[in-house]
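#onboarding

Welcome to the new folks! Below is a worked example of what a typical request in this channel looks like: someone posts a single protein sequence, and someone else replies with the predicted structure as tokens. Don't worry about understanding the tokens yet, we'll cover that in week two.

Example request:
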Amino acid sequence: MLRITKYILTLGLIVTILAIISASTVYLLLAPKLPSTAQLKETQLQVPLRIFSADKLLIAEFGEKRRIPVEYNDVPPLLIQAFLASEDDRFFQHHGVDYQGLLRAVYSLVTTGHKAQGGSTITMQVARNFYLSSEKTYLRKLNEIILAFQIEQVLTKEEILTLYLNKIYLGNRAYGVGAASVVYYGRPLHELTLAEFAMIAGLPKAPSKYNPIIDPERAIQRRNYVLRRMWEVGYISKLDYQSASQQSVTANYHSRDVEVYAPFVAEMVRNELVSQYGEEAYNMGLNVYTTIRANHQRAANKALQTALIDYDQRHGYRGPIDNVRLADTDSTTEALEQTLSKVDKIGPLHPSLVIDSTETTAKIYIKKFGFTELDITSLSWARKYISINRQGKIPKQISDVLNKGDVIYLHANESEQWQLAQLPEAEGALVAVSPHDGAVTALNGGFEYFQNKFNRVTQSRRQPGSGFKPYIYSAALEKGYTAASIINDAPVVFDDPGLENVWRPENYSGKFFGPTRLRDALTHSRNLVSIRLLRDITPNYAIDYAARFGFNISQMPRNLSLALGSGSAAPWDMARAYSALANGGYRVEPYIIQRIEDAFGSILYQAQPATVCETCIPSENTSELKQESNDSEIRFNAAKRIMTPQNNYIMNSLLRDVVKFGTGKKALSLGRNDLAGKTGTTNDQVDAWFNGFNPELVAIAWVGFDSPRTLGRYETGGRAALPMWIDFMKVALQDVPEEPLKVPVDMVTVRIDPKTGLLARPETDNAIYETFRKEHVPSELTPINSDTNETESASETSSLIELF
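Example response:
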């Protein structure tokens, strides 16, 4: 017996020595090839890029993995216990490797001949998730063990568990318990129940197999296993176990809803972030806060889509999307949904199917909404489209427009009543900017981003038409002209050898009005006055002056057609330029990104836009300005003045008259007296604009075809684009107090004769008040016989044509 005992002890010693030598050899061979675990302390989890409005509402999320990192102290203890009970109940006792678990795995291999899952501690799973593949091999298991020991040397148990709970994949693109809580239950972790904790804790073993959305029965089995283990380990009572086990599945898929629909903005930001950070931008957990205001953006979306639908309906109905044969068996909801499955919702337009119709009503099925009926008033606009300027007769009965089997679009009008609609062929753009610093508060680059991703706010270059005239007039004011200067509104002909045809510009009305004050000329957008004005100040001077406002001079013709806005500009450019008119004469740059934060809330970027500051004075460093203050000097990026206060005041006064008396008169429906702006309509009504503002907000609206062609007769800026601007401003300026126009120093207001622009005599009829810079106040009185002279002048110019 003694000999046998010695033999066993000797054998045991030899085996132990061999095991130590083998383990040491394996460690020495494998450890140098493994990555350093020290970097786990600075682990950057893959968190998606999120973009928010200025109100901190979600605009978009980019990235494959949904993850919401949580700190250890923010994880409910019951959830931690659920994971420990199901995955590693001795986690706080072992040093990275649970020998009992490993022995069970070895025993299973010896007795069954198959590699069984098991033996992996939470620390070993962290090692695998961060450094290794998921393939089941002996080498990988050895590497796991070595890495687990190393991890336990550099991290605390709490740090290891935090990494695990944030890293594990839990199905449905959810990585980590924070994301799983939102994805499956739509609530944060602290609001979940015991049964829901157990459901999440049961997912790591097989996220697809035990997914409560895909297979609720299997998910309940796995959840109840976790609950039983929690009871066996002593984390919960038997009563809690039994109660939670009886609960039904409450999981549903919860995507994080976009709270502000601004896809054009999201794409601009995404593109900027990727250009700066590369593809890692999608995984860095960046939170981007934009300048977009939620209520402004929603108003912009609706205003643009409404304006385009209204324009489209003025030009007739082009017919259904398709027509399908319907049998009696096709009347089930499932069959109708299948019929409409290939037609997608586009913006406010809902795919629909005509089930049946009579002379007075049509039975319609709306995709994902159900059945409704339309009467003739719902499609009274639908005259047959013949050409851009011709439509058929007004429909008198349903069959004039709709037939059984027609696949159509419907949209809900202001009264939430369904109306026949069609996808507009024309497009539009709307951008709103704070003139104080250039912050973009709303941007919509087209009818629907996912139908056409071309951003017309920033990527299009269109002729601004008469919207460019204010910069010709402002340049003329710098040359000594006044709002009362008289220019002859008479025909002109340009016979230039460089032109293929003789150019005979006209006013939109086709009429001529003789001698005209500049104020009236801009109010009513008189083309011939603008041409004569530009001829006098020269195109080169006007272009150099317009460059102050950010216009690209390479896009401007150096001839008199510039007076009619024949250059090229994007709505973004017009927003920049009109901001200077709105803010007192300062150059600001539109911007969208307010700040960028990393996943931990640290600020990586903070916008410092050039900001209007009337009290700023230059500091010793000319590139830096300081603000006068009683307490201290506040240094910041002050905007550069590009207009004199006097010039800016006169231009504001002129542009307010455009709204009060001229082509922008529809804007008076807003009931405000502080609105200013200018319509823009190019030749043959190819582009329609309204560029308008009040002291707090600039908004630019454009309508046109992507491939330039006429919008149709009478589709001017005042008809096609101004309604979009009005609908937007109605919301954006709600509760914004009116601001009167402030008169700067060195301005003088006097009575003038509206026919001559000279000082009015006491007996002058119809005298008006006009404001001048003090150095340009008229010094002459209007002639006593000005009425007679004016009559003679008008009769002469009516038959006079100037030849250039």
